[in-house]
Amino acid sequence: MWRVFFTSAIVAVVVRTAMGWCKSGICGHFGGGGFIIWDVSDGQDDYYFKELLPMAVIGVIGGLLGALFNQLTLYMTSWRRNSLHKKGNRVKIYEACIISCITSAISFGLPLLRKCSPCPESIPDSGIECPRPPGMYGNYVNFYCKTDNEYNDLATIFFNTQDDAIRNLFSAKTMREFSAQSLLTFLAMFYTLAVVTFGTAVPAGQFVPGIMIGSTYGRLVGMFVVRFYKKLNIEEGTYALLGAASFLGGSMRMTVSLCVIMVEITNNLKLLPLIMLVLLISKAVGDAFNEGLYEVQARLKGIPLLESRPKYHMRQMIAKEACQSQKVISLPRVIRVADVASILRSNKHNGFPVIDHTRSGETLVIGLVLRSHLLVLLQSKVDFQHSPLPCDPSARPIRHSFSEFAKPVSSKGLCIEDIHLTSDDLEMYIDLAPFLNPSPYVVPEDMSLTKVYNLFRQLGLRHLFVVPRPSRVIGLITRKDLLIEENGESSAVELQQSTSRSVQ
Amino acid sequence: MWRVFFTSAIVAVVVRTAMGWCKSGICGHFGGGGFIIWDVSDGQDDYYFKELLPMAVIGVIGGLLGALFNQLTLYMTSWRRNSLHKKGNRVKIYEACIISCITSAISFGLPLLRKCSPCPESIPDSGIECPRPPGMYGNYVNFYCKTDNEYNDLATIFFNTQDDAIRNLFSAKTMREFSAQSLLTFLAMFYTLAVVTFGTAVPAGQFVPGIMIGSTYGRLVGMFVVRFYKKLNIEEGTYALLGAASFLGGSMRMTVSLCVIMVEITNNLKLLPLIMLVLLISKAVGDAFNEGLYEVQARLKGIPLLESRPKYHMRQMIAKEACQSQKVISLPRVIRVADVASILRSNKHNGFPVIDHTRSGETLVIGLVLRSHLLVLLQSKVDFQHSPLPCDPSARPIRHSFSEFAKPVSSKGLCIEDIHLTSDDLEMYIDLAPFLNPSPYVVPEDMSLTKVYNLFRQLGLRHLFVVPRPSRVIGLITRKDLLIEENGESSAVELQQSTSRSVQ
Fold this sequence. Notes:
The structure is a homodimer of 504-residue chains.
Chain A lengths: L1 H20 L30 H33 L4 H25 L3 E2 L31 E2 L1 H6 L3 H9 L9 H18 L9 H22 L7 H17 L3 H11 L5 H16 L5 H8 L18 H4 L8 E2 L1 E3 H10 L4 E7 L5 E8 H10 L3 E2 L16 H4 L17 H4 L2 E3 L10 E3 L4 H11 L3 E5 L7 E4 H9 L4 H12 L1
Parallel strand pairs in A: 3-5, 9-10
Antiparallel strand pairs in A: 1-2, 4-8, 5-6, 7-8
C-alpha cells in the first residue's frame, strides 16, 4: 500500500509538471485536460430536502437497471462460452467486427433521423457556445443542421467521444438542452449495445459505459425535477451525476470505493452525501435480485470466490462434513513413480497429504504436496532414484530452481497426459520430502465450519487438513509470547509491559 | 462498513437541511459554517517543480518534530503513570488546573509583549478586513493596538479559537501577515504545551493541536519560499497546509487515511499529490526514530499490539519455540473446586486446555477454558456438584446467561482474591464441558512462526494451541468444498462451475 501510494503521488506530480511544460501547445493535446475528468464544481452548490425523493427514485432505477444488466450479461457470456466461442477463434473476430459495425451505424444513423433544435437564446456566464465552433470539443453539436443557429441533441450524446458525451450530460447551466425523447432513445440503444458488447473479444472497460447509461436516465429524472420545482436552483447535471453513481452501484455493488472515485472525477465534495445515499439505495435494490457484476462473472469463470461472511447454516456444520465429497489420498514419503502417475491419472485432486513412519512405527503427517509440483518432478525426472529409502538431505544437491515450480502465466500448466515416462522411469522411486509444504494449516475434525471458513477467507488458503482431535497440548501461544519474540526480552518497552502486565 | 456509510450519509443530509433552516440566524451560530472546516479551494491552484524541494524540507521537519513529539510524550506519560498519578486522583485535578492556568497566561501574556503591525495597504479581492470588525471571527486581530489600523500577528494565532487560528494560518492572499519571530515564538510555546498537556486527565484530541503545530512551521517555510521565488504565484497558506499534513504524518504515521482527512477538511483536491508526498517523507523520517504515537501509547498501556508483518528472524523459528516461556497447565474435564482455586492462584495464565479421557483410555484435548470464565463459575457456585463424574448435558438446566461471562466495561474483571469459598465448596467438583471453547485454533508444533504470526494477526486470536504433528489426515478442505456447502449442490451456477472445473 505504501509503495502504491508513493508511486501514485510521484506520477501525479510528474504528469502535472509535464502538463505545465506543454501548456503552450507544443505537445498537441497533451497540455490540455487534467486529473479531474468531469469537473462539476461549478454546478449545483446546495440541495433541498424535497430533492431527496427524486434522488431515491434514481437509486431505485439504478438498482433495477444494474441488476438487469448483470443478469443479461450473465446469459450473454454463458451463451458465448458454451456455444458461440467454441466454434473457433475466427468467430470471435467476426463477432467483434459485426458489433462495431452496428454500433457505428446506430451512432451515425440515429442522430440523422432526429430534427435539429434551435440554440437557446442565452447561456448564462459559462463560456459555452451554441453550436460549438468547428474543430472544438464541446456541447451543442451541429450535426447536418440546416442553419448555423441549431444543434442536434441526439448527436451531442451519440456522435461524440464518450468522455465528451458524459461532460455534456453532467454540464450545468444547460437547462433543457436534451429532449426526453432523445435521452430515452439513447438509453435504450446504448444499454442494448453495452449488454451485447460486454464479453466480446475486445479489451473494453465497464466504467465509462456505466456512467453513460446512468447519466442518461439521471438527466431524464433531473428534467422532470427541474420542471416540477421551478423556483429552486436545481441543475439537471447534478441528477446526471447521481444517475451515473446509481447505475455503477446497482451493477458493481461497490460503495466506498465508488464514492471516492465519483468525487475524485467530478471534484464536488458537497455532493458526497447524496452520492452515498444513491449508491446505497441502488446497491440494496440490486442485491435483492442478484450478485454484483464482477462476482457473477468470476463465478461463471469457475473462480472459487468466497463471500466475505459464511452462510448461516454453516454454524450447524463441522469441518469433517465439508470434506466428505472426496476421499483423501495420502502418499508415502518415498513413492514409486508408477504409483504417482496412476494416482495423478485417477483423480483431479490438487493437493495430497504425505505420510511417513517414525522409527517406533507410528504414522506421521509430514506435509502437503501439490499436484502441479508432482507433475514438474515427473517431467524433469532428475530426482528419480533407484532406492526406495529416503535420501540424506545434506548429501542431496539442489537440482531445481524456484521458477520451475511456478505456474506459467499464459498456459494452463502441465497435464499428466503430456508427460511421457518410460517403463524404466516407472520402476524408479522419488523422495517427496524436499518438495512438500511441511506445515500446512490444520483444523480439528469437529471445528465449526464457520471458523474454518474464516480461516480460508482471512488467510487466503487453498487447502486445509482436517485432522483428528489432538491428544495433548504441547504449548499455548498468546499475543504476549509473540511480542516477546518480536522485541527481544531486553528492550525497555518490553520491561514496562511486563510491569504493567503484573499490575493487571 | 455498510451501516457506518449509510449513517454518515444520513447525518450529512440532515445536518445540511437543518443548517438551511437556520440560515436566517434564528438558531444563533448553528446556521453558519459547513462540513469543510478550512476551505482552501480559493488558494494556490497550481504548483511548480521548484517547489518540491521546500516541500520535501517541510516533510523532513515534520518527521523530526513528530518523532520528537512521540518520544517526549512517551517520557511524560510513563512519568505520569509511574510517579505522579500514583499519588491519588486529587493530583490529577491539580495538574489539569495548573496546566490550564499556564496555557491561559501564555496565550494572553505573550501577544501583549508583541508590538502591533500596520495593516497591509490592500488585500486583493478576498473580503478580509484589517483589523477584523469587533464581534466577528476572522483574520487580523486588533489586540490592544494603539491605532485602529493595526493588528497583532501573535494574537491572531494565540488569542483565538484553534479553529480560527488554523483558518488564519491556512489563509491565502494574506502575504506577510505573520512575522517569522511570531511564528517561531508560537511554535516553541505551543509545542511545549502540547507535550505537557498530552496525557493529563482532560479529554483532549491530538488532531487540532497537531495541525496547529504543523501549519506554524509550514507557514514559516512558506514565507521563505515566497521571498525566494518572487515571480511565481505561491501562497504561504499552501505551505501551512502541507506543514499540518507533515506533522500529523510524522507523529501518527498514517498515510492514506490522513490524506483523505486533509483533503476532506480543506476541499482542495489539486493539492492531493503534494500532501501525499509530504506525508510519505515525514512518515519515513519519523519511522527512522520510533513508532507512531498511537502504537507507542498502546504499548505503554500494555496492549498486545502486533505489527502488520512478522519480524524476519521469525522465519527461522518454529511454533514450539515461542511457547517455551510458560509451562502449559491442563485441566481435567471434571475438576475439584480446590484444584481450580489453587491453579488460578499459582499462575497468571488466561487460558487453559481441558483434557478428557475416551473409553479406550486415550487422552483427548476437548477445548480451551478461559481464566475469566473459571472465575465467574467459582463466584456463582451454582454449577458445583458433589459427584466427580461428568453430568449428562441433556439433563442439565441452563443456569447462566451470556452476560454473566462478559467482562464488565468499567472494572478490571474478577480476581481470584475477591472470591470467597467455604471448605464445603472446596470439596465439590465442577464439570467444565459446557463452558469451554470446543475448537480453538491449533497449529502443529513445527509450523513456522511467521505462519503462526499471520494466523494471530489475520484472525485476531488471543490463544492458540500448539499440538503434536497429526498422525493421519481425515479430510482435505478446498475452496470448492466450501463453495458447494455455501450454494447447495443444485444451483445452476454450481452446475456450470462443475463443468468448467472438469474442463480445467
